[in-house]
Amino acid sequence: MFNIETIRLLVLAVLFAPVAFAALVAIAGLSGYRVARRVASLGALLHLGMTVALAVPSVFVLMDRVGLETKAIKAPREFQPIFVPGDPSLDSGSYETTWNLFTVANGPSELPPSAIQFFVGIDGLNIWLVVLASVMTYIAVLVSHGSIRERAGGYYAWLFLLQSAIIGAFLSFDIVLFYIFFELTLIPAFFLIGCWGTGGGRRDAARKFFLYTLLGSLFTLVGIFGIVLTNPTPVSPNSPSKHQYMILANSKGQILFPKAGPVTFSISKLMQNVSTWNRTHAEKLNRATLLRIEATTAFEKANGKDPKIVQQAEAELKRADVEFQTVKTDRDDYKSLQYWLFFALIAGFVVKVPLVPFHTWLPATYSEAPVAVTLLFTGILAKLGTLGLIRIVIPLCPDMAVQQGLPVFGFLGALGIVYAAFCAYAQRDLKMLAAYSSVSHLGLLVLGTFTLTAEGLTGAALHMVNHGLTAGAMFALIGFLAERYRTTDMNQYSGLIGRFPKYAFWMFVICLASVGLPGLNNFISEMLLISALFTPETTQAVGYGFGVAAASGIFLSAWYTMTMLRKVFFGPLLLPPQPTAVPPRDMQPHEWVAFGLPAILCLILGVFPQPVIQSMRSDVNIIVRQTDEARARLETEKSLSR
After folding, report:
1. Percent of the chain having pLDDT more than 90?
2. Contact in structure between 481 and 487 (CB atoms under 8 Å)
3. Nearest CA to 128 among 180, 54, 72?
């Protein structure tokens, strides 16, 4: 139905086209800001068209995959990206690539080398984020039309480079490649804040943002290499030339414990390796525990019998004890290392979200950055943090995600929901109100993610898209006032519904979507996230407190949002002093697109969310299966230790 090679080329085009647009717009900027603006708008629109052309076949394949998996005997336990450039397969894919960036180490000739690869592809978790990135970049370009006139070529060029780095991270299935793109986002963001910020402290804000997020990312880098080195490819002990993934028993039912082979940087293969080594350690411990129980029972039965039998039973018991202590020490050491690697991995992602209390870079950055840049930060850059949790942290540290995820980061998410909501209510600057509102909604996303249920993970994956639309559109709408009056101070506005009725209409639509009005997009994802907090498994683990905090966040969101609408749009007319002699007009043609496009998408996702949910289901189920296996493994260990 689709030409596979053409779509693989389209994946590369969507990734690298913004780099070409950045070069073109930088050259166009030499002819003035109007030329740069036209080229940037055309480039962003062309990229949006390419992204839609990529999304249509991808969604069809992903939805078909769900139907095929329901009929399959063995469901996949690792991510299986489609349309992978460099894939040797000519059909839908072997879910691998042959494009090596560089080889890290060579092992025996019969084993593949350890190589960092240019491994990018499409799955249900990233396709909608790529579409979101394209939509938000186009809106950011439109919103910048009236406010960016100095060095416009450089400004739009950095916007496109930021877009390319974000999309690269979204598409990456090699963990080092993901980290490279993840870090590359810092450079365009630094220059966009420091060079085109709106306040006197923009350089300090850019430096604080760069250093703060870099520090968190360095911890993540340590965690990445720790995971890679402690989870090498498992190789069959009988035949070193054959790799053995997820198989611990041979055809005779005997346990075959694998040995360590070459390391891998593929996220999919790392998921296999982590699962295999966890099962290996757990199976060894279970066997050693049962052998010790049997030896203890035999020793107790031997008491009072022939001294030879007693001596043999005692020797067997000592051997069982020694083996048990050795295996238990190995398992405890492995779990202890995974514990620290889990917290190291997650450090860079919770800063990027940001999750309270790792959000202290946010006030200065959002107050100083141009509105279009804050739009990209909250709309798509923050999603690198949430995707990192779902793509890397949970799949590669499933045991620790089960043990520590909800108690620690679920608590921080619940705290962030309430704390950021009250901070939003206290703000008098519209940009800061929207920024803290975003932190509150992302706290709900993180909280629902660590329930590790199908509802919670589906809601989180969907809410990344929904929140990106609503939060990004909110900043675009705030840019309307910033462009006309050079201020976003809420106390200087009143009665705008009479002065700008068309603008007020779009603001009401986005605000209603943000507070989760039924029929608009946030309602679906927020209900999924909250329902995950009231499942029996979740309430037995942490009670009803997190669910109450999440539900209260919806109420608090409506409280501060409706308070803002009442102050700014109703009452007697109040406007700041006009920066120009010409009275500002209501909506411009480009603003109809910038505000109307996300509003229409909010309505479509609110009424027809099923195609998005269906395309995500296969990848969500992969994570659920892995965490369910980890939960069962931990429960077994706990019961045997009693």
Report:
1. 44
2. yes
3. 54
